[in-house]
């Protein structure tokens, strides 16, 4: 590759060597199934008990679901998608000013996943932002496109409200008080990954992001409506989650798997790339505060197996997560009792 990022305007006719996965790790796109019954939860439904029941079903059987009537205004979503795509169209020199492969930076443009650690790279550029508290981080965000800060901050505020509402519903679906998850997670951080996957000359040889689970508590994903690419792993098969209009995809992260004592799954998911078209996705991550003690709710450990995972702080978990490759075994396995 001639530049540090993929969004350089160069259209590759062959996949550079460093992105080619060994045969056994390739996505086998012909074996992927369409997921026709992705749980869709209507948050506008007046029957609250039904919403809680649907969320509980989706969390224990899928580890992800989509939400509609989520109260994030349509224009906030549309503006976010537009400004994200304008960002990746900026001149290369402008973008390279904020390039970094240091995962500890709170604002950076980067490529692949963890350039320093991984052997094979992924066909993705991403802008990573810390978003909470907004007044701490907003000054370091890009000032180009000119409306970037205004639009992205509105989006972050709305998505945070949605995330908290979902955490309450998830607590209730576990039979816990509705503020349980928020109380355990403390003052939650919020991060964003604006993912840009350029057209890829050989999508069957590489990934946008290989299979992984999210290390945080809850992920709220906005998918490009025009180009599919998200796949989730269920019952031994990869399923394609096609974008649904006006919906967000909600992924449970590793911390909710631990808090639920393994009842709910932090789902394996991956992004594949497209030969002809670029794709974008915007992931918002709600993260426990660093010193939150992740410990399963007592009523959930009363069965024979007791607590599945040992107690740990989020800071300890996050450090471990970034010290590894994305596609290794589930990081939670390292915290089992
Ligand atoms: O692009 C996607 O659909 C998935 C993105 C994702 O998994 C992530 O940013 O962690």
UniProtKB/TrEMBL annotation:
A single GO molecular function, which one? L-ascorbic acid binding
Does the record carry Repeat as a key word? no
Cofactor(s) needed, names only, are: L-ascorbate
All copies of the Fe2OG dioxygenase domain together span 188-288
EC identifiers of the protein:
1.14.11.9
Superkingdom of origin: Eukaryota
Which GO terms are recorded in the biological process aspect for this UniProt protein? defense response to oomycetes; flavonoid biosynthetic process
What the entry lists under InterPro entries is as follows: DIOX_N, IPNS-like_FE2OG_OXY, IPNS-like_sf, Oxoglu/Fe-dep_dioxygenase_dom, Plant_2OG-oxidoreductases
Gene3D superfamilies, sorted:
B-lactam Antibiotic, Isopenicillin N Synthase, Chain
Known catalytic reactions = salicylate + NADH + O2 + H(+) = 2,3-dihydroxybenzoate + NAD(+) + H2O
Q: Which Pfam families match?
A: 2OG-FeII_Oxy, DIOX_N
Q: Which UniProt keywords apply?
A: Dioxygenase, Iron, Metal-binding, Oxidoreductase, Vitamin C
- Please give the family membership noted in the entry: Belongs to the iron/ascorbate-dependent oxidoreductase family.
Q: What is this protein called?
A: 1-aminocyclopropane-1-carboxylate oxidase, putative
Query: From which source organism is this entry?
Result: Ricinus communis (Castor bean)
What taxonomic lineage is listed for the species of origin? Answer: Eukaryota, Viridiplantae, Streptophyta, Embryophyta, Tracheophyta
